[in-house]
Specification:
homodimer; alpha+beta; BirA Bifunctional Protein, domain 2; Rossmann fold; 5-stranded mixed beta sheet; 16 helices; 16 strands; 38% helix
Chain lengths: 424, 424
Amino acid sequence: MNNTFNVPRGTSDILPDAVPLWEALEFLARKICKSYGYREIRTPVYEDVNLFKRSLGATTDVVNKQLLELASAKEDEGYALRPEGTASVMRSYIENSFDKKERLSKFFYIGPMFRGERPQKGRLRQFHQIGVEAISVDEASPFLDAETIALAMHLLREFGVKDPQLKINSLGSKEDKARISDWLRGEFAKHKDKLCVDCRERFERNVFRVLDCKNESCRKVVASVVKDLPLSVPSQEYFSKVQAALTSIKIPFEVSPHLVRGLDYYTHTVFEITAAGRLGSQDAVGAGGRYSTLAFELGGAENIRGIGFALGIERILLALGEAPIELARVDVFIMAMKEEYQPLIFLVLQLLRKAGISADMGFVCGSMKSQMGRADKAGARFALIVGEDEVKNNSIAVKDMQNSTQETVALADIVEHLGKVLSS
Amino acid sequence: MNNTFNVPRGTSDILPDAVPLWEALEFLARKICKSYGYREIRTPVYEDVNLFKRSLGATTDVVNKQLLELASAKEDEGYALRPEGTASVMRSYIENSFDKKERLSKFFYIGPMFRGERPQKGRLRQFHQIGVEAISVDEASPFLDAETIALAMHLLREFGVKDPQLKINSLGSKEDKARISDWLRGEFAKHKDKLCVDCRERFERNVFRVLDCKNESCRKVVASVVKDLPLSVPSQEYFSKVQAALTSIKIPFEVSPHLVRGLDYYTHTVFEITAAGRLGSQDAVGAGGRYSTLAFELGGAENIRGIGFALGIERILLALGEAPIELARVDVFIMAMKEEYQPLIFLVLQLLRKAGISADMGFVCGSMKSQMGRADKAGARFALIVGEDEVKNNSIAVKDMQNSTQETVALADIVEHLGKVLSS
């Protein structure tokens, strides 16, 4: 019997040395999303399983193979860990009648998502996303599409991702999609023997997915058949305005007629951002698109539409390629040379913390050397030492760990003294 | 067929108006925990189900009735959403060999926990905790116990919880616990007919739980039988030192010999903090204790011990009794009086955001009145208006929403101008 436990397959611990990087990304994400008028929403990590089936499309890979469901005693009460954020945000939008309160609601979220995939580099079972959804009962605005894309690019640049590459495409309106599906099926039918097994299946249930198949034979067929998606004139005009808006704010992009996304609900603008780095084939750091029928499919009003994206935090960290950093834990480490002085240093410790100074103490009253080792490990700038002389004189020895100088400070002055030297 | 979806039973959305309060608590928690030398750790939301069975005790309510398990195709691969944080942190501590790297490791965590309880006020299926674990291979230090309790009280006070009440107790060492169990069983056997059904069952599997039964008849029996827990002399001395340390830093407490906690792994110091407020009978806002056998039970070294606590964020918010607050979303709202001016305001919008000024625009080019309504709803301090005159003169009208004054600013100066007035 294996007596120990491991972190579940496809998940990972974010250990203390790695957390500061996550915190920095989250801080920037909150600041920048807010500066675009987005507000944070936090939905539960699990939802009614049918929410995902209905929103993502019952035949998508995510729903068919990758939902992590909760065990349930009751047949009719099925829950699944959320595989993405859009369905949950839209569920909350409808449930809380945001469409009755305001014409345009802008949400962002930061949190874990879950897919029961075979784990590999850049694909985890519990992974984390920063995402936004701009949901409205207004007419769609091409400037909102451009703003959303600009926000994704702004975030990635602030995070330090080098040279993110933006691809955009338009799938057209719902009517366009239906018409284009028929056309694609007609065209691909002529080359069906050259398509891979997956694509022959996709052919029936979502022929758009053939467009982004990675199989080389499929790519050749796609390249020969699809130069442009035959959009209706209004859809084409809308897409042109999105491109003009992006150009006006100097965001470079490539129009890729073969770009589709794995989720059924997208219409009109879709986009994907890739980054070079240690990602290998999983080089997408973010993606998103517009959706116009999602709300209605989830029981909301027909005029609710939205656009959003999600960035993968683990993917971004891989692209950044930064190693965890060990930060100083506290500014001050206080130690007693005898156990009987511990009550005194404990008092000083709490006074320091109440004054907002980060501090720790040697809970084990070991040798000077071992306690200095702990002070060093904690990254303390000052080690405070209380020995026989200090107790006799109501003072504390203050050792500067950077230049190894030492001075004696009166006990009554210690908080003020450290406050001063630490802030200078 | 009900076409819409609701948030899962016993969970809730944290909507944008409520998030700022959560953010404020989390910010304070991170700052204060760090000032005590604790570092954040983030473990996955689910773990091997046996981790919880082995750590919490297979016969506890949490494990018997409240684990939310993931559906699994394989019998041997069971996972459950974490019902608390200690088991996960200890699993990670052992798996990552922290005991080989440092003598004392101090972790804190903030995140969702899950219990399949019947939902009621203050009891949710997805709830959120701020917790800490100080895990060490040193001898236990009573100052570490006192520090942990002080940290919990410090956090609650900084959060604004009025008059938190601290109760502490000692369950003694593992040997003490076994001896006291026998003694309690002997005493309670004499009054078995007066104990409730639950307690007659607890009597066998964990007699300590009889001590904190809420049933009135049980309370009478407990009050008559247990004045003090008969601790061994070393355990009593250790507990006295914890109390002396708390007294020295002026933290008031009540020793409650009937205080036990619902989890099997506690030994020595346990504590609970309650707060008056809108909590009703669920008035505990936090609790914790020392554990000395948990690591060994999870396959770690026998000399690994720890102490920790968890505070319930929803409970704290109930105690604070604060209503969600609607904050300003952006500082600046820019609107075009004609659709043909939208490309211009979109450009200005992005310039403002790049300069760190939070801003939004009217994506729908409605009437002045409707766009002013949106600016107002966004809480903007300044509304920028671009109409025919402004375009002709390369300027923007800047309306101060507080005092309704208006001025005209040259287009080229607008970012600098707003940067100045907003920072003043």
